[in-house]
Amino acid sequence: MDRTYSFQSGIELGRYLIFIRKELFRKSIHLCTGFVPILLHFQKTPALILLTMTCIFYSVCEVLRMKGYEIPVISAVTAAAARKRDENHFVLGPVTLVCGIISASLMWGELPAACGICALAFGDGLASVAGKLFGRIVIPFTQGKTAAGSLTCFFAIFCSTQILTGNTLIALVTATCGAAIEVLPLKDFDNLVIPILLGGLVSFLLPQI
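Above: the chain's sequence. Below: its structure in token form.
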């Protein structure tokens, strides 16, 4: 979720820097999912099994953390990436992230799924960072999303889809739809919606063009 911040004291600046550090760390995980299509291309079944096991393992660790048990490494990573709204709650983002990737991979062909996954990794990932760092113009009724974040999302999806498909029209349509989805206040569920819908869109457009 993109928000603009202003600070007038050292305390506010410190909080802002901590917030940015968390966001950069959280979205670095997001961006790493851009490599998943490569794994799916060479070893699809093992990759899907690994993703599923990772999701289950993470979910178990989160349940234990909620019960007061500290899981080495996992709990520390979760704490470092958790946003304020996630405090004292199950951190759902990694689960929806993995589920979105798996769903797109099972529902669509390799190329459309790759487009959807890369749109999630780069479009949604970079949009959040750009919005936090450069966002000044807030888009009404979006719970803080910014114009800077939406434009970054558009260009990131356009570039990744253009590289994957080699078709400018498909890239343009996909990027436009992706930016429209990203601006919606879906919270962690955009991790599900973006790869599934955009993968389906590319799957539909490819035979038409």
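Residues 110-134 form the longest helix (25 residues).
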